[in-house]
Amino acid sequence: MKKTIALVAHDNRKQDLLDWVKHNKKSLNPHLFFATGTTGKLVATVLDDVTRLKSGPLGGDQQMGALIADGKIDYLIFFWDPMTLQPHDVDVKALLRLSVLYNVPTASNRSTADFLITSLLFADSTYEPILKDYSVYLNRKTSKE
């Protein structure tokens, strides 16, 4: 079963992500990919099915977050740069928040990405992540009601 994998990388980590994609091309190529801006352009030189979103600072991180919220992303591989201040840091935090909120397996470095794609659960087409039930939150009464 094809998985839908989100690929994101900050500028100083794009080459690291590209190297990882090249190294794992055989395992990755059967799957579908969404990637932000330049990252998408780079990985599309290696992988077959890459849908490019906008650049992260121009709304790509938010587009990716919307895909996660809509249940369209199975995995998030986000090689972020812990050493460089990002002008769109709030968007990055929002994206990572959504990956946790919707229980999307997320890798922020090469080692974790390797563990994700080599897990027996990665190849298991019957695996369904358990989503937290937020109905109590959604059905709460506000002070104005």
Structure description:
This protein has helices at residues 14-23, 25-28, 37-43, 60-69, 89-101, 110-118, 120-123, 135-138; strands spanning 4-9, 32-36, 50-53, 75-79, 106-107. It has 145 residues and is of the alpha/beta class. The protein has a single domain (4-138), classed as Rossmann fold. Strands 3-2-1-4-5 form a 5-stranded parallel β-sheet, with helices on both faces. The model has no long low-confidence stretch (mean pLDDT 92).
The percent range for strand residues is: 15-25%
Major β-sheet annotation: 5 strands, parallel
Q: Could you name the ranges where pLDDT drops below 50 across 5 or more consecutive residues?
A: none
Instruction: Tell me the series of helices and strands, N- to C-terminal.
Output: EHHEHEHEHEHHH
> Helix amount, in percent?
40-55%
Widest sheet, order of strands: 3-2-1-4-5
CATH topology: Rossmann fold
Shape: globular
Question: What's the short story on this structure?
Answer:
This protein has 145 residues and is of the alpha/beta class.
